[in-house]
Structure formats: structure tokens, C-alpha cells
Design goal:
DNA polymerase, domain 1, 48% helix, mainly alpha, three-stranded antiparallel beta sheet, hpI Integrase, Chain A, two-stranded antiparallel sheet
């Protein structure tokens, strides 16, 4: 489908990405909404399995709206709350979370493209559900989105905390490696940013930065004015409640306390820790089609079954690998 075709009006049940049909809710909407719908599935979701799952979730909601003669521009949080109550009779809590995650992402795309003024899905709470890797609780994609949205980016401390959590989530790094980072460990390579991590056991890894993490780091580094202080610590401790940063590094204990405070501020419930972001990143990466062997390398996991896992010539993470992570 070329750019000109995307501009043409389509009919309900017109085949779209992956052979799926465009639901009437969107096919009967203005042309810009149709185009945004097509772009969302064709451009923003590279994994075919994820795309198919999201399409099924969106189609189910669209059918529910069609049965009640709701138009796209009429949908409010009240409609979505009623829909949640109905699907809760049939779907498990994890399925409901995924269901609404698909809707939230689509409606956020509509807002970004100017189709809608606001995203009503964000106002609707879904059942709490914590997934775990072993005994470590992981955040759901919705919870991660809620957490990142809760930061006050007018504050240098808020920018620091968002960037620090972003590094753990998008690189699967242990908190010890993150609080030990120096400014020089965030490097420009070509057009993108790479972060150098020194993990336990003396392992050094260079991980391409996810575009969202690149944004978070850039905002923090510029606001703190440490661009040229290459040998200084990257994440600095706060000076009491002054809202200012010292020249000393934030330590592991401070990072843990910060995370507990940020989780509370975001109104999330669960016994989350620094390690939760590692579990969350790995889980999200694999769910979006990532390779298990590459996930082990990115995370710096030891594996006695193969020495090839640590052969950097064969196990260098690419930007495509990192971009699989979606919150």
C-alpha cells in the first residue's frame, strides 16, 4: 500500500496490514482517522504476532462500538469503562490489561496525529496484575507508561530519576552498573547514542540506546549542564530537598528509595524494586519477538552451557533489538 492509497477513503472490512479487515468504527471515520489507523499498525508495530494480537483487541472493541452505533469521535472514558465491565466477564486480568494497552496505544497515536484531542483510554483503570520473573515482580507496559508519565520534567531531580529508571528498563542493567555510570559512558556513535555498562564480573557491554531512552538521557544531561564533565558521575545525588543535585553519585540505597517514592507517586501498587526494571525489560523484549539468546547477552546473564554467549563479535546488540521494547 503506497502513500497515495493511504490517503483514499476506505470501506468497512477493507483488508489492511496482515490481511486483517478495517473495522467499521474506523472505516466510517474521516480520512485522517483511517490513515492514522493504517499507519499505527503498519508503522509502529514491527512484530507480526504483536500486530495481529493488537488488531484482534481493537477489532473486538470496534465491534462493541458498532453494535451501539458509537462513532469514533463520541467515545469517552464512560464508554470504555462500560466496555471494561463487559469484557471482564470473559477475559482474564492479564488479557484485559493487554486489551486496554492496545487501545491506549492506538488512541495515543490518534492524539499524536491530530485525529482526537484527548485519549479517553488513559482515564480508565484496569485490573491489577503483576507478572514475575522468578520472585521479582515486573511492571506491565501500562504501568511503565504510567510511571514515565508521572515524572515532573520541570525538575532536574525528575529528569534524573526518569533517565535512571529508563536506563535500567531499556538496557536490562543492574542498579549497581547504572549508579556507577560516568558522563563519558553515554557516547554518540554515528547518529545514535550508545551506553557503556560495566557489569559484575568485569563484563563491559555497549548497548544502543532506545530512542525513548536517548530522549530521557539527553534531556537530563543538558538540564544538569554536565555535557563536558566527561569523567564525572552521570547520576548525582540530590541535596536534601533543595531540588538541586550534588557532585556525588547516587548510591544503590538512594536509588531504591527513589523508586519506592516514584512508584507511590504514580499510584502503582506492588513490591517493586530496582531489579523489577530488569525483569520488566527482558519480559517486554521477549513478548515483542526478541531472541532469548540476545536477551541473555543484553542482560549480561552468565550461562555455563555456551561460551558463545559472550562472544561480542557474534552477540552485539543492534538498535533493532533494543527498539523491540515497547512501553
Amino acid at each position: 500500500m503506497d502513500g497515495d492509497t493511504l490517503l483514499l477513503p476506505v470501506r468497512a472490512n477493507t483488508p489492511v496490514s496482515g490481511g486483517h479487515l478495517m473495522p467499521a468504527l474506523f472505516a466510517n471515520a474521516p480520512t485522517e482517522a483511517q490513515r492514522a489507523f493504517l499507519e499505527f499498525f503498519a508503522v509502529t508495530i514491527p512484530n507480526a504476532n504483536t500486530r495481529a494480537a493488537y488488531m484482534r483487541d481493537v477489532a473486538r472493541f470496534a465491534q462493541w462500538c458498532d453494535e451501539r452505533s458509537f462513532r469514533l469521535e463520541q467515545i469517552t472514558s464512560i464508554h470504555l469503562a462500560a466496555y471494561r465491565e463487559e469484557v471482564s466477564r470473559e477475559l482474564s486480568n492479564p488479557s484485559i490489561k493487554r486489551h486496554f494497552s492496545a487501545l491506549r496505544m492506538l488512541f495515543s497515536w490518534f492524539v499524536e496525529k491530530g485525529v482526537l484531542d484527548r485519549n479517553p483510554v488513559r482515564e480508565v483503570k484496569t485490573p491489577r496484575f503483576s507478572r514475575s520473573e522468578g520472585k521479582t515482580p515486573a511492571f506491565t507496559p501500562d504501568e511503565m507508561h504510567q510511571l514515565f508519565e508521572s515524572f515532573n520534567t520541570d525538575s532536574i531531580v525528575g529528569l534524573r530519576d526518569r533517565a535512571l529508571i529508563g536506563v535500567m528498563a531499556f538496557t536490562f542493567a543492574r542498579v549497581e552498573a547504572v549508579v556507577s555510570l560516568r558522563v563519558k559512558d553515554v557516547m554518540a556513535v554515528g547518529r545514535r547514542t550508545v551506553i557503556r555498562l560495566n557489569e559484575k564480573g568485569g563484563k563491559e557491554r555497549e548497548i544502543p540506546c532506545h530512542h525513548t531512552l536517548e530522549e530521557y538521557l539527553d534531556a537530563y544531561i543538558k538540564a544538569s549542564g554536565i555535557e563536558k564533565e566527561l569523567n564525572s558521575v552521570l547520576f548525582r545525588s540530590a541535596i536534601g530537598r533543595t531540588g538541586k543535585l550534588s557532585d556525588k553519585p547516587i548510591n544503590r540505597s538512594d536509588a531504591y528509595q527513589m523508586i519506592q517514592r516514584r512508584v507511590r507517586d504514580a499510584e502503582l501498587r506492588g513490591r517493586f524494586s530496582c531489579h523489577s526494571f530488569r525483569a520488566t525489560g527482558i519480559t517486554n523484549y521477549l513478548e515483542n519477538g526478541g531472541n532469548l539468546e540476545m536477551a541473555q547477552w543484553i542482560a549480561g546473564h552468565a550461562d555455563s552451557r555456551t561460551t558463545k554467549l559472550y562472544d561480542r563479535r557474534n552477540h552485539r546488540a543492534t538498535l533493532d533489538d533494543i527498539e523491540r521494547i515497547r512501553f
